[in-house]
Write the structure tokens for this entry.
Amino acid sequence: MINHLNAAQSEQQRQWFQTLITHSDSISLGQHLPWVKHLQSKARQELQSLPLVQRKQELWRYSHAEKLFKQPFYPQTNNSDNCYQAGLESEATLSTDSFKLVFVNGRYNATLSSTLVVNNELAEGVIVGNLHAVLQSHANLVMQCFNQTARQGEDVFSALNTALMSDGVFIYIDQQVTLPQPIEVLYLSGPAEKSSSGQDSDSHTQESRKMANLRNVIILQAGAKLSLIERFSGEKDFHYFNNNLTNVVLEQGASIKHSILQDESNTAFHLNSLFLSLFKDSTYQGQHIALGSSWSRTNYTAKFKGTGATCELKGLYTVANQQLNDVHLDINHAVPGCTSSEFFKGILYGEGKAVFDGHVLVEKQSQFSDASMKNDNLMLTENAEVNTKPQLEIYADNVKCSHGTTVGQIDEQQLFYLRSRGIEESRAKKLLCLGYASEIIDAINEPLFQKQVKSILDIRLNEGLLISSSEKSS
Amino acid sequence: MLSIKNLNVMVENKLILKDFNLSVAAGEVHAIMGPNGSGKSTLAHVLAGKEGYEVISGEINYCGENLLALSTEQRAQKGVFLAMQYPVELPGVNNMMFIRESLNAISRARGEEEYDAVRFMKLIREKAAAVELDNKLLKRNVNSGFSGGEKKRNEILQMAILQPQLCILDETDSGLDIDALRVVAKGVNDLRNKDRAMIVVTHYQRLLNYIEPDYVHVMIDGRIAASGDKNLALELEEKGYNWLIEETAA
Ligand SMILES: Nc1ncnc2c1ncn2[C@@H]1O[C@H](COP(=O)(O)OP(=O)(O)O)[C@@H](O)[C@H]1O
Ligand SMILES: [Mg+2]
């Protein structure tokens, strides 16, 4: 990564964003509403002046993003021919006991989503739906929620998301309401069904490299409770870019369990920015499992706005050849007496690359803060690379804070032990990797989701460790 | 079954096993005794195929095959089992799952039918009872939070389940109280038969009150300094190792 962009590189990057904007004419999320129009045109303007992606920018100091700007993308539009079908049935039927919203190639798919969600009849005091629909039925509520979460993410990709947002998930839960079942959001990506008219083999023309900008707004009023699962999944070798942005607001005593599985296609680009606002005594419990994508970046920005709140994040990532996974955490103890803990574990093989850049700020007034941040990495090959930097910046004096990072290899004694019991070397390594990951996986409290994660992790480890199908069974 | 000839092994540029010779036939139990640092664990590790040991010269023949040409897992699949002196913990790896993986890896390699969950459960329950290992320990991660004695019992449990041809026990008795010692010895004696051979490495004569060896060897400075029957062990108990060390040095 270049520290400073030269004039030509800057121009190329601005152009990359500009191309996306100029191709976005047919996006029509709430264009009839002045406030949406205003929001979007403002974001377009900002895109021309916001700092570009380069290392001298704090946000991108350890990241590698050249790969992204080398490819042009085109916004997903409403009239795009878009009938990806393969595998949808099985994806959509994986769990039956959750409320489900399904997006296919960045567009809401009502057929695959639960009818209850579509009809907005989940429960008293609960409004759930795709943003597009809720803007029709509850325009004022959506506006209030947007106002509440405005001015977050003053970076190019957040601005891009605002400028081009085409749909997303809207969840509003009223005071003291608990949803009995989890809400599941699926983002599926894949090529349009091949027509018989011949244009099959080259369905990956550049025009078809689509970008989706989904905007999620999740508001939990005082005492509300929710379990939310998001899963990104893409068909092998399909090229696309998901640029998601999610705002979560937890009012007093609200609590959310939020699990994310990023299992995008091996050629996908994935950027997910989450902004969390935690008011008094609220709880955010997040799990982030990143197993796919060619280029993946996740930003969590959490701000404590009331005392006694808790933010807990657990993450797992695996990266193989040609994969980059970047986790960026920004935790702000702006008020006293809050607890934050982040623990991310990575498994790296081949020439896989990972970045962990975490920052906890404890402001002067924030006494009795409890903050811990940890990142562990298991390197299976010499060529894998990790840049890890958990940092604490503490201005209060009566706090409990810790941070740490480890980068290690498979333990030779453990490997010998397994092999001496007849277990093939690659299989033995896999068992040790699964053991290593279990600290994160076992903490997932939705059993079906946990099962999904386990089975995909299993596949990824087999690929990463080159385990042939004959050795797989157990 | 096993024939070791003129084996020379270096560890980190230091010669540890020096022209080492040993022959073990099916049905025999050989005890190997000797002071700390004489090379007993080195021998056990070289037999099991652990990395980091450089075989300078010599040969090891196991059931008609060149053992040194086989990988660690192939040796295990062909019936070599080492009960470790220091069994390691495997964080996050469930004990029962581990033992089943192992059993099925070996079954697969031999072209035998794998154990399904039901058949395996029955087997492990039975064998765990025999080594008096609490079922709770089966559900834990391998050796995690096990006491010294529990770790050793877990080794014997694996041995009982895998039914190896050649059992090598490296100081399985060290640090055990008398009850654990009895259990370990029972595990070994239960497996004793005319087709199976055992090499029991021990520091103390005590274990041999429970496992009666056919041969006793004393290893000093990388070589067998004396061989005999169980009376040799009693003699060592009485006189210590020093007389042999002096004899070797002379
Ligand atoms: N990994 C190792 N690195 C360096 N020296 C070793 C290693 N393993 C064993 N040794 C040395 O080899 C010699 C024999 O050790 P070992 O085989 O463990 O003896 P025993 O089991 O009889 O006590 C000792 O001098 C020991 O220090
Ligand atoms: Mg030893």
Q: What stands out?
A: Confidence is low (pLDDT under 50) at residues 195-204, 470-474 of chain A. The interface with chain B takes residues 411-414, 416-425, 427-428, 431-432, 434-439, 473-474 of chain A (CB under 8 Å).
